[in-house]
Amino acid sequence: MDVILLQRIGKLGQMGDVVTVKNGYARNYLLPEKKALRATAENRKLFESQRAQLEANNLAQKSEAEAVAGKLAGQTFVAIRQAGDTGQLYGSVSTRDIADVVKAGGFTIDRNQVVLDKAIKNLGLHGVEIALHPEVVVSVTLNVARSEDEAARQAQGEDVTVIKGEALEIETFNPDEFEGEDHA
C-alpha cells in the first residue's frame, strides 16, 4: 500500500514522502496513529494544502523535545528489582518499568518512547535510549540494583555481585589426597 508520511519515521522516510508499506503496517499502525495518509490523488492535494501547518507543528514538537532532551541527557535513574546472588534478575526490566522510573524522576515520557535493543536481565548500569521525537533521541543510564544502598555502590563503580570479604572457592576432588586410606 502506498502512503504519504505526515511525519518523519525512522527507516521509512521523511515527511511528505510517498512510500510503499505492507497493508497491515499501514492499517494497524500508520493510519490509526495519524502518521500517514493513503496515497490517493485527493489525499495528496489535502497534504499539499496542509504541508506548511504540518511542518510548523513538527518544528514546534522538535524544539520542545530538544529542550526536554537537554535536561534529560546523562541522567541516571534507579530501578530496584529482586535478583539472585549472581546478579541475575527474577524477570526483566521492561519499557513500561523504565518509563515509570523516568516519570518518578520528574520527566513525562511514554513507554513507546523507550528504545531497548536488548532485554535488561541483570544488575548493573545499563544505557537506555529515549526517543522524545523521531529526530531527537537522548541517552540515559538505568541503575538496576536490589536496594538504594546497592545502587549507590554500583554508581561508584563497585561490582555488587561479588560477596564482600569472601572469595568463592570451588573445591575439587583430588584422589591423591586419599591414597592409602580405605574408603568402604
Instruction: Briefly note the structural class of the backbone.
Output: alpha+beta
Structure annotation, total helices: 4
Oligomeric status: single chain
Classified by CATH, the class of the largest domain is Alpha Beta
Question: Could you state the CATH homologous superfamily of the largest domain?
Answer: Ribosomal protein L9, C-terminal domain
CATH topology of the largest domain: Ribosomal Protein L9, domain 2
- Most strands sheet: 4 strands, mixed
Give helix % range: 25-40%
What is the H/E order? Answer: EEHEHEEHEEEEH
How many angstroms separate the termini? 79 Å
CATH architecture of the largest domain: Roll
Which term fits the overall shape? Answer: elongated
* Total beta strand runs: 9
Mean pLDDT: 87
* Gyration radius, in Å: 26 Å
Strand order, biggest sheet? 4-9-8-6
Total tally of structural domains: 2
Binned strand content: 25-35%
| Uncertain stretches of 5 or more adjacent residues | none
Give the SSE layout.
Layout: E1 2-5, E2 18-20, H1 23-30, E3 36-38, H2 41-72, E4 76-80, E5 88-93, H3 95-104, E6 114-115, E7 120-122, E8 124-133, E9 136-145, H4 148-155
Protein described:
By secondary structure, the chain is α+β, with helices and mostly antiparallel strands. 32% of the residues lie in helices and 25% in strands. The protein has two domains: 2-57, 3-Layer(aba) Sandwich (Ribosomal Protein L9, domain 1); 73-155, Ribosomal protein L9, C-terminal domain (Ribosomal Protein L9, domain 2, Roll). It has helices at residues 23-30, 41-72, 95-104, 148-155; strands at 2-5, 18-20, 36-38, 76-80, 88-93, 114-115, 120-122, 124-133, 136-145. The strands form three sheets. The chain has a four-stranded mixed sheet, with helices on both faces. A three-stranded antiparallel sheet has the order 2-1-3, covered by helices on one side. A hairpin with a 2-residue loop joins strand 8 and strand 9 (136-145).
